[in-house]
Design a protein that fits this description.
With 279 residues, the chain is mainly β. The chain has one helix spanning 10-32, and strands at residues 37-42, 49-59, 62-75, 78-81, 89-96, 99-104, 122-127, 130-133, 136-140, 144-148, 153-161, 164-173, 176-183, 185-190, 192-200, 204-213, 221-229, 233-242, 245-256, 259-266, 269-277.
């Protein structure tokens, strides 16, 4: 039996359910959330366009912010949409003792180490202080913590000194041991020798290391991360070794009235979009 030939409009008709399902999903999400709305985004430097759905969702102890990019493409005079849900969550929070699950760049529960950048957005999930932080494992109490992965492990203890506290730690990495002590400002020596800075608050995370490493060709290496959030401005920049590569990841969101200006940096790729509300 001969295969029926495609007739004009057949491919478009096949795409109709995608249109319907996408908009039905957006409408439903808008109804169950206390939303923001649907935005049209355009880059001032090229011809790329997109839709963007921003939603805040709260239910019981759950707080989630969704940010869905919907790239727009044109074919034969028709506009097609394909939602990108690979990075659906902008943030997530569920805290109900003894459980805690978050997805954020404000990782206030992460102890200081020389190999985990707390300003990098990761999933953090624990039960009675034991669980996962990014791709590693964590156990944390008021006086003791262990943070580790297949590449390195860090153990730290709290040392009360009067009304203040110091934190001493020892690390085992692929290249040797590190020992350090401090609180906000840390000194460490071993496979890495240098200074560290770690400020962790609800809406501010600052992390920086400057050190000499026994296996580095550089005199000094610099690693840093920053996350800052206000009502109308948010920035998250991480300069670190990610998945074995030296990488800079950055995102800046500036809300001006009802318009968002969004800048992104991924390695050498820089993007800037202006997003206008349309719904």
């Amino acid at each position: 039996m001969k295969k029926a030939k495609d007739y004009p409009g057949k491919k478009f008709r096949k795409r109709i359910p995608i249109f319907v399902m996408t908009f039905a999903f957006l409408i439903l999400l808008n109804q169950i959330s206390n939303g923001e709305t649907l935005y049209f985004g355009v880059s001032p430097f090229d011809t790329t366009m997109k839709l963007n759905a921003k939603y805040d969702f709260s239910f019981w102890k759950f707080k989630a912010k969704f940010d869905v990019d919907i790239p727009l493409t044109e074919n034969a005079g028709f506009v097609f949409i394909k939602p990108d849900i690979s990075d659906l969550f902008e943030s997530f929070e569920f805290i109900e003792a003894p459980y805690k699950v978050t997805y954020t760049a404000f990782n206030t529960s992460i102890p200081f180490s020389t190999f985990f950048n707390p300003a990098q957005k990761v999933w953090y999930a624990t039960w009675v202080g034991t669980g996962y932080a990014g791709s590693g494992l964590i156990h944390k109490t008021e006086n003791f913590s262990i943070l580790g992965s297949g590449m390195a492990v860090n153990a730290s203890i709290r040392i009360p000194i009067g009304s203040a506290n110091l934190y001493a730690f020892v690390e085992r990495t692929q290249n040797g041991f590190n020992f350090g002590i401090g609180n906000t400002v840390y000194v460490f020596t071993g496979e890495k020798t240098g200074l560290g800075f770690f400020l962790s608050e609800k809406n501010v995370v600052l992390y920086a290391l400057i050190y000499h490493s026994s296996d580095s060709a550089n005199s000094f290496d610099l690693v840093n991360g920053m996350a800052l959030k206000t009502d109308n401005f948010e920035i998250n920049i991480v300069n670190d070794n990610i998945d074995g590569n030296d990488t800079i990841i950055g995102r800046v969101i500036w809300k001006v009235g009802g318009v968002y200006v969004v800048g992104r940096l991924q390695g050498k790729e820089v993007r800037l979009d202006v997003e206008f509300p349309i719904w």
